[in-house]
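Researcher: Good morning. I'm working through a list of sequences from a screen, and I'd like to move beyond sequence-only analysis. For each chain I'm collecting a predicted structure so we can compare shapes side by side. This is the next one on the list. No need for commentary yet; just the structure.
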Amino acid sequence: MYIQNPYDQYRKQSILTASQNELTLMLYNGCIKFINKTKLAIEEKDFGLAHEYNMRARAIIEEFMSTLNMEVEIAQKLYMIYEYLLRRLQEANLKKDVAILDEVLRHVTKLRDTWEQVMKQGAGK
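Model: Good morning. Structure tokens for this chain:
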């Protein structure tokens, strides 16, 4: 019989019970985590692992893009931002360039922080 790690159980339960807003925040945090892991892997010259982490960050951005309601003006603007971030992640992956990853990290962190503020304002209503 397989006994699941308690941390894994907690994490799975957190995801299953999270609101849409909380899931979005988790995805932003995951993207930030994978960008940081990509940077570390590049610095350690583990380019295979860097590629894997970069692809995970890109998958999160692609998920954001696929869930946008394009009938809303802000969604169209976000789409263009996400598109830019994807291109930069791809470029960073090809060049193994930490400076590009730093740029993407700044943008994703700003998006995450903004989302967090929106959540807090929504909770106060």
